[in-house]
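Usage example:
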Amino acid sequence: MIVTRGLACQYPGGVRLTFPDITVPQGGVLLLRGPSGSGKSSWLALAAGLMRPAQGEIEVAGQSLGSLTPVQCDAWRARHVGFLPQKLHLSPALSVAGNLELVYFAAGLKTDAAAIAAALQALGVDGLSDRRPQQLSGGQAQRVALARAVLLNPQLILADEPTASLDDGAAGEALALLRTSAQRCRATLVISTHDARVVQALPQAQVLELDALREVRA
Amino acid sequence: MKLLTLSWRYLWARPLATVLNLLLLTLGLAAITLVLLTRAQLDRAFERDLAGIDAVVGAKGSPLQLILSGVFHLDVPPGNIPLREAQALARDARVAQLIPLSLGDSYRGFRIVGTTHDYPAHYGAQLARGRLWQAPMEVVLGHQAAQATGLQPGQSFAGAHGLSDGGGTGTHAAHPYVVSGVLAPCACVLDRLLLTATESVWEVHEVAHGQHEDHDAAHEDETREITLALVRYRSPLAAATFPRHVNTTTNMQAAAPALEITRLLRMVGVGADVLRGFAAVLLLTAGLSVFIALWSAVRERRDDLALLRMLGAPPQRLAALLLCEALWLAGLATAAGLLGGHLLTGLLGYLLAAEQSLPLTGWLWLGVELWVPGLALTVAALAALLPALGAYRAQAGQLLNSR
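Running the assembly step on the lines above writes:
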């Protein structure tokens, strides 16, 4: 569940962004829409605890993020947030399994090889664990990145432009996988997008339009 | 996944850079190990061989040459001195002990030294087999000489004229030596010598030169020579007057080993300093290379590091990841550098042993070698400092803005 009240963030130089209040139930889907610079990335950063709100409050799965110290925010994010970046960012230095092991490294947890195998199997890429990311097709890489995002059964999954540069077929498949994976771990799914196909593919999702909300303080 | 495992995998993700950095670090550390081992063993050998010898008396010439030939048996002696004059010095009130040494022959590169039983006693030598010589033409072998020649008590051999292997001008086949014993290893100059009575040397050479039979014993003592004498003072005060007395009132010279060896070490020390400086430059280069490699790794892996931050890794864990990579390099280079340094020292020792020169071994571990890992860790840690800071500052937010 995500609840925001009077949420705003501020950048050096006085640029301030304010966001409308919203409540997304646990397991729900939220689409962040808006043109470049409208604040989609900032909203994701606030929801991930990477940025502290300049004003207002954001609560994720009952945790008020503004009350956490940076160290606590890191620990909270490691356990409760899954992230699917637009460019996937699979490390070429590591195998597919190694890329998933990074989740445990980041969280300071002991690697669970069985959980990794299960996550890869759930996404249909279980035979690729020893391959390098550069040996994967685009679709395979996206599935591996998604497996990484859901490995610790997060309560919140943040997906940043997951369909950008995908054709219609691949975009549909990516969204379906994302939705299914989020449902499997009962996570709230937040998708930042300006792709109209996403709205069409997820008609039940709440939409947060982030247009013309910028304020500049003198 | 553990920090060590991940840093190891990242390290070998760039195998060429890693191998080159390892090579540079290893070369520097191996050179330093070689200097440390060589210097320590040379110092120890000098100290051991010089112990209790206050002066060396021999023919006039280079005092350093006299010390090198008389104490360490590394050079040819400047000439001979009359036995009669050496005996006169032995009676000097300032002299506690005078050990005569007669050189001139060798066997398979090992010097045959005519002397008295005082010489092995001076170094506290113990017999491993047989007994000390009891008559002329009996010989006792040092440990290394016995091993190299394979001679056993009871066997005989003919010495060659000259002091170096292959440098002889003929053998004294008519006057064979008989091995009476073999010394236990003493880690001193005796290990590579063949010891016999002074009379043996006279017998071989006087017969060779047609002397001996036509002269009576008294006349023989008048004309006989030895090569040099090792002198131990009765009191340290003798150091102030004895050498001057010998140098000004006789046709001989007295050289103080401590002074000459200090001079020698100063000369050798320049070479050691050059090697040490070279090793330092290598290490500095390696440090720079490690820094460049880690710095470019941070740049290449900016997204990886940002992703790790996004996944919840605290900044200090990312900095530790980079430091750990550097420490892996340091650890591997330390092992390879120490091994390389010991192998090089062993090789140098092998080459010197073939020349019957100073003993040097690679199979020796010194406390001072603890500096090597310390140095490697310092270089690696310094090289990793800025890259680790870069990793520490990795921002997860850049993943959200990268298009």
